[in-house]
Request: fold
Amino acid sequence: ELTHDRKDIGGMINTFIHEIVHLLLEHYNVELKLKDEEKVCEILGTGFSDLLSQNPKVIKVINSVYNNNKK
Reply:
């Protein structure tokens, strides 16, 4: 069984969001210098992971909106 402390989970969420931002930039053909793309991904990854870890109710709101619109 794998166990992760809160810091590990925060790091995984940060990396996950960071990589999603790379995918979105590529999908929407956003052309940035590599240095600038990394900075954008770093800021958004860190910003969103901090937001989610410091405000756990945000996930509940997102799930609620998703589940209500799924019907």
Notes: The longest helix spans residues 6-27.
